[in-house]
Amino acid sequence: SPFVQIDGVAMRYGGVEGTLALRGASLDVGEGEFIAVVGPSGCGKSTLMRLVTGLWPPTEGTVIVAGKEVSGPLSIAGMAFQNPTLLPWRNILDNVMLPLEVVQPHRRQLRSQRGHYEHKARELLKLVGLAGFEAKFPWQLSGGMQQRASLCRALVHDPRLLMLDEPFGALDVFTREDLWDVLQDVWMARKPTVILVTHDLKEAVYLSDRVLIMSSRPGRIIAERTVPYPRRRS
Ligand code: ADP
Ligand code: ADP
């Protein structure tokens, strides 16, 4: 069965009189599939991401991930957003290693796995061009650098599900295309299930197996296209 099953989902913010952000959304995503979601601002892309990651419960319908109905924040997901959400009191390395504490809350195991995570975190930081910045704090880095660190944090625990909401939005075009390759390499090595929200159709086609197009008023999925010739390097 599909890894992510979204069935008849609707989301209305702020009670019966509130904004209908999403309606009639149904979608199956296979394990290891890479899906891109595109659409104009306000069409409900972020809402869809919040429902799948369990940050909000849907007003209607169900979301099932890995065979279980989502009923609270999903710890198996790695997430990255357009606005980097690094913790200001931690340095970059400790920010990237944060998922370790979520996945492994027991002190003793945490200590024994720390070395493995630290190695992984340093490798990822190198991959995104942040070697040498491990001991800096978020405010000492540019917005784009913080965004790259956020992407490392989303990847550090090899999540089976990657939820990426405009993760490259604040980057210049060259850095962005380098990071496409980083993400593609991670995907090819580990085959996580990926749902990527983007404004950039080129990015969607370059990276994904399938592109969903959403429309606003109120938000719904209006079309779906399989990418016929992925641009992926082999
Ligand atoms: P997108 O990510 O495609 O820009 P969103 O999912 O953020 O779209 O928003 C969809 C609709 O829901 C918009 O009309 C937006 O104003 C509204 N909305 C989003 N988040 C909230 C919220 N927390 N409270 C109320 N309305 C919201
Ligand atoms: P972006 O936001 O796309 O990363 P910026 O124009 O803000 O780009 O920064 C450009 C470059 O400046 C960064 O890629 C980095 O090499 C350098 N830089 C930014 N902040 C620092 C810093 N605190 N220490 C050293 N170099 C930095």
TrEMBL record:
UniProt keyword terms in alphabetical order: ATP-binding, Nucleotide-binding, Transport
Coiled coil: none
Pfam families linked to this entry: ABC_tran
Record protein name field: ABC transporter ATP-binding protein
Residue span, ABC transporter domain: 4-234
An example molecular function term from Gene Ontology annotations: ATP binding
UniProt similarity note: Belongs to the ABC transporter superfamily.
Stored CDD domains: ABC_NrtD_SsuB_transporters
Annotated source species: Neoroseomonas eburnea
